[in-house]
Amino acid sequence: MRLKVHVQPGASRTEVAGRHGDAIKVRLAAPPVDGRANEALLHFLAERLGLPLRAVTLVRGVSSRAKTVDIEGMDPDEVSRVLLAP
Questions:
Q1: 71 near 51, Cβ under 8 Å?
Q2: Mean pLDDT of all residues in the chain?
Q3: pTM for the whole thing?
Q4: CA–CA distance from 74 to each of 24, 62, 77, 78, 84 (Å)?
Q5: How far is it, in rounded angstroms, from Cα 12 to Cα 15?
Q6: Distance between CA 43 and CA 53 in Å, rounded?
Q7: How confident is the model at residue 86 (pLDDT cuts 50, 70, 90)?
Q8: Where do the domains of the chain lie?
Q9: pLDDT confidence tier of residue 6, bands split at 50, 70 and 90
Q10: Is 35 left (phi over 0), alpha (psi -120 to 50) or beta?
């Protein structure tokens, strides 16, 4: 499945912050330098979804706040439910 994510790098902590239009907003504690925010996003999503890191791939938005991530092995409804759970 493809997941649209809006990232806010340099936040005080890494967390899901709800929706941003049709994307899920994620605040990242990592700075947007040398791909560290992208790496932190992939690790965060994999951990939160209970998937191996290889199942989460950044496919669009390497240098943008608007990113598209491929997630293998989960239903789209399940991904949204897990990420947006309080």
A1: yes
A2: 96
A3: 0.95
A4: 16, 23, 8, 7, 15
A5: 9
A6: 6
A7: confident
A8: 2-84
A9: very high
A10: left
**Beta-bridge mates of residue 17:** none
Block residue for tokens 């899901």 = 16
Q: Burial code of 45-73, b = ≥16 C-beta within 10 A, e = fewer?
A: bbebbebeeebbebeebeeebebebebee
Report the greatest alpha carbon distance in the chain. Answer: 32
Instruction: Please report where in the chains the tokens 């669009």 appear, as a residue.
Output: 60
Pairing mode, strands 23-27 and 2-8? parallel
The residues that bridge with 25 in the sheet, in sequence order, are 6
**DSSP H helices in 1-86:** 36-49, 76-84
Fold of 2-84: Conserved Hypothetical Protein Mth637; Chain: A; (3.30.1200)
Q: How far is the C-alpha of 77 from the C-alpha of 63, rounded, in Å? A: 27
